Amino acid sequence: MLTKILGLSLFLLASQTSFAATTDASTSISQALQHEARTDANKKRDIARKPEQTLAFFEVTPEKTVVEVWPGSGWYTEILAPLLAEKGKLYAAHYSDKFTLLPADYMQKGRTEFNNKLASHPIYKNVTVTDFAPLADIAIAPASSVDVVLSLRNQLYMFEGETSLKHALANFYKALKPGGVLGVVAPRLPEHLLNTEWKKTGYVPEQLWLTLAKEAGFSFEDRDDMLLNPKDTADHPSGIWSLPPTLAGTDEEKAKHRAIGEVNQMVLKFRKPQE
């Protein structure tokens, strides 16, 4: 009887500790969401992007070392930088000139805008900018130094075929510590469109991520439906760029696509096994 009571007590203590850790992390993310460095325009997209739930799902906490892959203009950097500023570390693996499928001036413009953001507020002083191109042998961070790699809404891996995604996954795997998390948010291609010319649309089959991540050595751990949008049929004239916030097309098409909302996204969590 005493053994059962002690076992129950230990279980309850562990549960309370886990709950407290989760609550503390959530509170820290909530605080980062309200940081003064965030723009009002970016805050308005929190409803569609659900950053608090997304980062919590990927186990991002203030003491973690994190790589943000292709941060673009820094939408998530505005959240990650204040979250990790005191106890953690943020690497921003931005465009590399070794990625040849985007115009050089476009990538340079993107990096310049990102660098200007980093210079705009002291909260970004500890962000380390590195390079990333799917097929290039460039370290996004020191090997086995990272707790979480985040690939958030990046759709360009497939522009160079499956080989580019394989190389990208190998790069992520190398950067992660044993037990580290790869968090993927990506436009999800419906299964009935697998036989179409989908590679230039920005949508990617979920099964492709699952298969290639497993081949790279990752264990698939979990998925979440928080960013699914059933209104998104994934058959738009300009692919994912038809939908907000890009809204490519005529005024009539923009009105139609604005009513659909943001892209249907899969949220997948992978883990590098413990050695």
From TrEMBL:
Q: Which domain of life is it from?
A: Bacteria
Q: What Gene Ontology biological process does one annotation of this record name?
A: methylation
SUPFAM superfamilies noted in UniProt = S-adenosyl-L-methionine-dependent methyltransferases
Q: Which GO terms describe its molecular function?
A: methyltransferase activity
| Annotated coiled-coil segments of the chain | none
Query: Which keywords does this chain's UniProt record carry?
Result: Methyltransferase, Signal, Transferase
Signal peptide positions (record)? 1-20
Name of the protein in question: Methyltransferase
Q: Which organism is it from?
A: Rheinheimera soli
High-level lineage = Bacteria, Pseudomonadati, Pseudomonadota, Gammaproteobacteria, Chromatiales
